[in-house]
Amino acid sequence: MKIPNVTIQQLLEAGVHLGHKTLRWNPKMKKYIFGKRDSIHIMDLTQTLELTKVALEKIYTTIANNGKILFVSTKKQASEAIAEVAKETDQYFVNYRWLGGMLTNWGTISGSIKKMKKYESDLVAENRGFTKKELLKMSVKKDKLERSLGGIAEMKKTPDLVFIIDTNYESLAIAESVKLGIPIIAILDSNSNPDNIDYPIPGNDDARRSIDLYCNLIKETINNAKSSIPAPEPKKDVAKDIKEKTEGKTVQEIDREKLEQKFSKDKKETLN
Question: What digits encode the pLDDT tens for the residues 34-55?
Answer without folding.
Answer: 999 999 999 999 999 999 999 9
